[in-house]
UniProtKB/TrEMBL annotation:
Lineage of the organism: Bacteria, Pseudomonadati, Pseudomonadota, Alphaproteobacteria, Sphingomonadales
Highest taxon in the source lineage: Bacteria
The keyword Glycosyltransferase is annotated on this UniProt entry: yes
Function as written in the Swiss-Prot or TrEMBL entry: Synthesizes alpha-1,4-glucan chains using ADP-glucose.
Organism: Sphingomonas mollis
Positions annotated to bind ADP-alpha-D-glucose: K15
Positions of the Starch synthase catalytic domain: 2-234
Keyword annotations: Glycogen biosynthesis, Glycosyltransferase, Transferase
Record's protein name: Glycogen synthase
Enzyme class (EC, first level): transferase
């Protein structure tokens, strides 16, 4: 079976969030299931060395008004295709916006080009490249299933929603420029509330829809989580499934992690002390007996960071410390920096993102706070489980599917892996933090939480099997 995976980012080449980790890990996970995955990415500047090492195998003289080439290269030993369209992708800034964070005005054109190239490839435009499945990830690839349908390409399509809040919405006046048949301007195509939604187009056209956790697959049928698409999701309920993301043990493994001063295993947890000391040093925290909580996150309303910011004085008063790495909304950044000024030695804040530092935080902090209002899957809690950094999470989406609350019954049964709270309010989060502090004061109970998490299997093994089954089911004759 041959799968063309289409996305806007993939680790380690280009990353802004968990989408990249998933897309980067899927080829190896599926290879174990006899599924050969080729990944298609845009030709951002970060991919220039990879493109230079590859070779051009196809050209588009006019792809949405610009010349484009298809470069064949490799991604960690797996096939990689790169859409080299300098007018669209070779620019300073990030994948989706400029250096100030403002979205590119032509994102509609940039990602329509990616989707159309994917559909052309699936339709046999590139000699020697035949595929059975086109797998589109998030809104940036959302038009690909629509183009496949319009072309009548001989492949089945899968649309994966990593976060339904990001929908790729544009003005309906752009529809003629997309080159889709007129009927797709309707509610049965790309039209969405008198505009265009690339994600909606993919959800409408794909043969199967997946989300990144079973709970999120249920939640997005509800108006509270569906972000206006709940009716469409409900109407396609038979085609929707939730498959929890995995993590790559070659990248996230405390026993071999070069970012840690002291690698360790579940049997050598005492070695984490050196990493804990390194966290103190990097974040200017005063050593202490209370737990170090960490946050590695976008600082946004979705992530519940406003609620955490509101209780930081209480966290410190209860005996906790905080090491935060993240960026996002400017008022929230300012609130965390102000708290660090109020509590020197107890709260340390780094605005921005640093991959190695995120590994150190998982390997040295005691607990990771993830009070998300909604969380399709979440990866940071999986990293926390793998590293013995106990997750303190809201009961939603993939957080609910992957963390077992340390309630009395779960503690007695020896199956608890973290702390789960209901509701994202200051009182609920502070209560969860106090529970964590109380458990941390019981070394045996805390160590059991750590070892339970570290011994759980959150690799891509089972997730890869489920994707492979989905692909094979799609290929079965009706």
């Amino acid at each position: 079976m041959r799968v063309l995976s289409v996305a806007s980012e993939a680790y380690p080449l280009i990353k802004t969030g968990g989408l990249a980790d998933v897309v980067g890990a899927l080829p190896a996970a599926l290879a174990d299931q006899d599924v050969a995955t080729t990944t298609l990415l845009p030709g951002y500047p970060a991919l220039a060395p990879t493109m230079a090492a590859g070779c051009a195998i196809h050209e588009w003289p006019d792809l949405f008004g610009t010349e484009a080439r298809l470069i064949e290269a490799g991604l960690d030993g797996h096939p990689l295709l790169i859409l080299d369209a300098p007018a669209l992708f070779d620019r300073d800034g990030g994948p989706y916006g400029d250096a100030t964070g403002r979205d590119w005005d032509d994102n509609w054109r940039r990602f329509a080009a990616l989707a159309r190239a994917a559909a052309d490839i699936a339709d046999g435009a590139v000699k020697g490249h035949r595929f059975d499945i086109l797998h589109a990830h998030d809104w940036q690839a959302g038009l690909a299933p629509a183009y496949v349908r319009a072309l009548g390409a001989p492949v089945k399509t899968v649309m994966t929603v990593h976060n339904i809040a990001f929908q790729g919405r544009f003005d309906l006046s752009l529809f003629p420029a997309l080159g889709l048949p007129d009927w797709m301007a309707s509610i049965h195509g790309v039209e969405y509330y008198d505009g265009i939604s690339y994600l909606k187009a993919g959800l409408q056209a794909a043969d199967a829809i997946t989300t990144v956790s079973p709970t999120y697959a249920r939640e997005i049928r509800d108006p509270a989580f569906g972000m206006g698409l709940e009716g469409l999701i409900a109407s396609r309920a038979a085609d929707v499934s939730g498959i929890v993301n995995g993590i790559d043990p070659a990248v996230w493994n405390p026993a071999t992690d070069a970012a840690l001063p002291a690698p360790y295993t579940a049997d050598t947890l005492a070695d984490r002390a050196a990493n804990r000391a390194a966290v103190d040093d990097r974040f200017g925290l005063a050593p202490g007996d209370g737990p170090i909580f960490t946050v590695v996150s976008r600082l946004t309303w979705q992530k519940g960071m406003d609620v955490l910011a509101a209780i930081l004085d209480d966290l410190v008063a209860a005996g906790g410390r905080l090491a935060l790495l993240g960026s996002g909304d400017r008022p929230l950044e300012a609130a965390f920096l102000a708290a660090a000024d109020r509590h020197p030695g107890r709260i340390g804040v780094r605005i921005g993102y640093d991959e190695n530092l995120s590994h150190l935080l998982q390997g040295g902090a005691d607990a990771i706070l993830i009070p998300s209002r909604f969380e399709p899957c979440g990866l940071t809690q999986l990293y926390g489980l793998a590293y013995g950094c106990v997750p303190v999470v809201a009961r939603t989406g993939g957080l609910a599917d992957t963390v077992v609350d340390a309630n009395e019954a779960a503690l007695a049964a020896g199956v608890a892996t973290g702390i789960v709270h209901d509701g994202v309010t200051p009182d609920a989060l502070l209560h969860a933090i106090r529970r964590a502090i109380a458990l941390h004061a019981q070394p045996d109970a805390w160590k059991r939480l750590q070892t339970n998490g570290m011994n759980a299997d959150f690799s891509w093994r089972e997730s890869g099997r489920r994707y492979a089954r989905l692909y094979h089911d799609l290929m079965e004759p009706a």
